[in-house]
């Protein structure tokens, strides 16, 4: 049995998920690095002395099998972080290829729902556990060309609230972190384009796009005993962008 809590983070091979897994591992928790990039998951898990879990969260059968395997080995899952997400592309609503919408829905909504459902059952039996979802301020503030992605994150916020109210009688909390743009491999193009970066940073009162190290601690906090009276919240981490 691993020391510390058993923490499963999806989409943790790189970017924000990797940073979140690192934050938990740094506190002595055992990080299970779930990602459809099996090689990337192995690399990150090795760095954290954790465990890789190759997984496509949009595949219901794969999710069920993966959670069963984790439970068989560790006996429990104390924290689930639903971080995996995709943008899939961009475009105005009237012109967007429906395949781009479907790709985002499959991972961001279906995947988050399937993982929550699968992990909720053993947590309910144990009457203990924490779920942290990764949403976005885009769920509350529209950006032209990103409507499909923002719709999926609004759904993540709704899943968070439903999870919180339905699982509260079992002592299980569910919250979300809702970043603005974050410097990750997913946003590398934005970060490397001075004009595009400057345009986005003009929307942020604090003037800078977030780094992973500014977001991961919030997930750690929401899963901690210090947040024991917080549930159903989607915490904006946006440098004040929602104020603008």
TrEMBL record:
InterPro entries: NAD(P)-bd_dom_sf, SDR_fam. One of its GO terms (biological process) is fatty acid biosynthetic process. The keyword Transmembrane helix does not apply. Keywords: Oxidoreductase. SUPFAM superfamilies: NAD(P)-binding Rossmann-fold domains (SSF51735). It holds the Pfam family adh_short_C2. CDD domains: SDR_c. Transmembrane segments: none annotated. GO terms for molecular function: oxidoreductase activity, acting on the CH-OH group of donors, NAD or NADP as acceptor; quinone binding. Belongs to the short-chain dehydrogenases/reductases (SDR) family. This is SDR family oxidoreductase. It comes from Paradevosia tibetensis.
